[in-house]
Amino acid sequence: MTAKTSFPPTQLFIDGKWVDGPNKVTVMDKFTGEVAWELSGAGPEEVNKAVAAAKKAFPIMAKMPIHKRAEILNKTSQLLAENRAEIANCIAREVGKAVKYAGFEVDRAVDTFRLAAEEAAQIHGETIPMDAVKSGEGLFGFWHRKPLGIVGAITPFNFPLNLAAHKIAPALAAGNTIVLKPAEATSRTGAWIVALLEKAGLPAGCINMVHGKGSVLGDLIVKHPDIAKITFTGSLEVGLNILANAGLKKVTLELGNSSPVVIAADADMKYAAAKAAIGANYCSGQVCISTQRIYIEAAGYDTFKKHFLEEVAKLKVGDPLDPETDVGPLILEKDAIRVESWINEAVEQGATLLAGGTRVKNLLQPSVLENTKPTMKVISQEVFGPAVSLIKVETFEEGLKLADDTQYGLQAAVFTRDIERVFQAIHGLNFGGVVVNDCPHLRPDQIPYGGNRQSGLGREGLRFAIEEMTSIQTVMFRTGHSR
Ligand code: NAD
Questions:
Q1: Which residues line ligand 1 (CB under 6 A)?
Q2: pLDDT at position 1, please?
Q3: Catalytic pick from 254, 311, 382, 460?
Q4: First to last CA, the chain
């Protein structure tokens, strides 16, 4: 079966044209298990053509006045908003994400493009007080930012629209050109952005898109000598591989996490439970900042547990296209089997299953564990599924210590009404982001966002991504007039 709707096209996009490649990418509907659509798949030749087109277009993009770049980005934002329902439907089918959350993802991408248009107008440098040192006397100096050239953008399946937007929008705002490779399982959503940029008037070659296997096409992009920068969101394993192969390219990596939440006994337990039930199961737990480990001070443990289990029981699991659904299927049956096996292994090793744990194909019920140990996979590794552990701790400090005892460092959260505890958390947690009185999955799209430790390199968020997608050039005039 091919696509029922002809927009966006199912082909590759190279040098302003929709073209066929030698391979096929079959995208399944993650809930029905039927073929949703087939797309054209690229081979090495198409990657080379995409890079050549981006190279040819770079002077056009670099010289494009900022008001024109902003106009294209704003127009794309508007077109995304106009096509909200259809794009959300595409995301719901490709990812299995509940359509109400798929709609929020579209809203966020609308913001991401609008914010990029605003940030484009803020790209600037500074004059340098050259005569602050003797050797600078008689010099006038300034620095400014220049686009890097071609940005290779490699995106994951779980937020196929907004995480592509977080790479494409700042790259264009800064005057770069792009070769995009969306995750295979969610390729059509990537095509939405590309097709809308084309409608918005982006010149040929400024964005190019290839569909297909990451291990083949992604690898070619990473190693291509004409690409200046790789911006990647995905797993730690692939991120490390990219770093090993990228040479001297600039690299931004947005990787995984094992997101902790620490709940002090003074917190509003009913409120915290409602937030955490969503934080752990939103997008079936397939969010890099999905709540995975909840440390609760002993005095509040039973109250939190009672409210939390009530909130989890309220979640509607099933068809992502049903507007009432909260939790849809996982991306592949093998991923649901993996999460189920980690739950079973934890139970065999002494954990107690309080809810869920049952699976039909790729649909796993929201699962809650207690009595886990730090060495269990559900604690020490990124679960990336709807499985969360409740852990009783004697003190808030102990909770912070355990929360921080991880190889990851993307976002963490605490619930407390005590300002001293808030500052203990800020200073005690080595994470790129700390959330107070909500869960780690908060990401308003303008914030500097990214991980410490094994969670990544660099920051996204429009202003910060633009910094990572430009280079600083210093200019020094010998004029005899430093001031
Ligand atoms: P993945 O690493 O399997 O794939 C991500 C992308 O990399 C895909 O486009 C894939 O085709 C490509 N790829 C695969 N092998 C490659 C290679 N050898 N060279 C170059 N590219 C290659 O990740 P996924 O399963 O799509 O996404 C899940 C992971 O992403 C989780 O670990 C999650 O935590 C992480 N993630 C992180 C963030 C963040 O902002 N930090 C956001 C979302 C997801």
A1: 154-159, 163, 181, 183-184, 214-215, 218-219, 222, 233-235, 238, 241-242, 254-256, 288, 382, 384, 410, 451, 456
A2: 39
A3: 254
A4: 70
DSSP 34-74: SEEEEEEE--HHHHHHHHHHHHHHHHHHHHS-HHHHHHHHH
Cα 154 to ligand 1 centroid, rounded to whole Å: 8
Architecture of domain 260-436: 3-Layer(aba) Sandwich (3.40)
Across all residues in the chain, what is the average pLDDT?
97
Q: Is the pLDDT of residue 483 over 80?
A: no
pLDDT band of 2, cuts 50, 70, 90: very low
CA distance 60 to 57: 5
- Which member of 90, 206, 283, 288 is catalytic? 288
Peptide bond into 44 cis (omega under 30): no
Comma-separated ranges of CATH 3.40.605.10 domains in the chain: 12-255+451-473
Would you say residue 3 has pLDDT above 90? no
Q: Closest Cα partner for 468 from 97, 173, 47?
A: 173
Q: Is 94 a catalytic residue?
A: no
Is residue 101 pLDDT above 50, yes or no?
A: yes
The CATH class, in words, for 12-255+451-473 is alpha beta
